[in-house]
Design a protein that fits this description.
This protein has one domain: Alpha-Beta Barrel (TIM Barrel). The chain is 35% helix and 19% strand. The protein has helices at residues 19-28, 55-68, 121-132, 136-153, 180-196, 205-208, 219-228, 248-258; strands at residues 4-5, 33-39, 74-82, 98-102, 105-107, 114-116, 158-159, 199-203, 232-235, 262-267, 270-275. Helix 4 (136-153) packs parallel to helix 5 and helix 5 (180-196) packs across helix 7. The termini are close together. It binds zinc ion (2 copies). The site of one zinc ion has 5 residues, from loops.
């Protein structure tokens, strides 16, 4: 199996360990490509995101690693960027090879507060009540609506953990994925993804961290991607060198069972379809 991840965090943001530790482990495990995607700096207080002061060091460190390991593994410098009103556009920053666009927070217009989408169960409850008076449909529509706004106005290379909205929905606590309103939101979003040719990642990070038992997005969404010709890639969203390829054989088998034959990856400085 062609092994790569374009989604990884380190001590620069909310992950652990040095960037080089990830590269050493990736080489040990037979990776062909490794992409760094620190949570890009944001314009509000956050404990997850890289600080603006660390940005230059992040860029310099990834560049030095590319050079040092160029005969062994391809390394790319990416960012996982948050989308919110008036957010920073990092896509054209020199040295940035790709971006993963994610919505982790929704801005509450009245208070200006940033309400988390994929935090702890308590955070989710807080967002639901503070922002949406307990109306789960309104919360879900706002989340998918924000994804669509990002895809239309600032399309990233890769869409991050598309249905992370279900992270705290264990046992269908808040909704069923086959509820008509939920399916309609997802399908509307996929239609925009199809036009923009953004890649959907199969993200195994929620499993390695014990939040969910299936990768993001759910199988039915991947089936729809297959039918619609939307490209996919397998990413570990790793926060530690130990989990860089967590659940990869299973994710690969899942994609094959749906009918996918390739994943789209950045390789040789080009986006290309590589056999699964
Ligand atoms: Zn994320
Ligand atoms: Zn991430």
């Amino acid at each position: 199996m062609f092994k790569s991840t374009f989604h990884s965090h380190s001590r620069f943001d909310d992950g652990r360990e040095e960037l080089e530790d990830y590269i050493k482990e990736a080489i040990n495990r037979g990776f062909q490509v490794f992409g760094f995607s620190a949570h890009a700096p944001v314009l509000f207080d956050s404990i997850w995101n890289m600080r603006q002061e660390s940005f230059d060091e992040y860029m310099a460190t990834t560049k030095a690693l590319k050079e040092k390991y160029k005969d062994v593994i391809e390394i790319y410098t990416g960012l996982e960027t948050d989308f919110y009103p008036q957010c920073i556009d990092f896509r054209a920053v020199p040295g940035i090879d790709y971006t993963i666009g994610s919505v982790h927070f929704l801005k509450h217009e009245e208070s200006g507060e940033f309400l988390s989408v994929d935090g702890s169960p308590e955070d989710f409850e807080y967002s639901l009540h503070k922002g949406f008076n307990g109306d789960i449909q309104a919360f879900g529509r706002a989340y998918y609506g924000e994804l669509r706004k990002m895809l239309c106005t600032m399309p990233p290379s890769i869409l991050g953990h598309m249905d992370v909205f279900r992270k705290n929905n264990k046992g269908n606590k808040y909704f069923h994925e086959d509820d008509a309103w939920y399916r309609a939101e997802v399908i509307k979003t996929l239609e925009i993804i199809k036009q923009s040719q953004v890649i959907i990642e199969v993200n195994t990070g929620g499993i390695s961290r014990g939040y969910v038992t299936e990768p993001y997005p759910s199988r039915w969404i991947l089936e729809a991607c297959h039918d619609m010709g939307i490209p996919v890639m397998i990413n570990s969203d790793t926060h530690h060198p130990e989990t860089i390829d967590f659940y990869y054989p299973e994710a690969c088998a899942l994609l094959k069972s749906i009918g996918f034959r390739h994943q789209r990856v950045l390789f040789g400085d080009e986006w290309r379809d590589i056999d699964l």
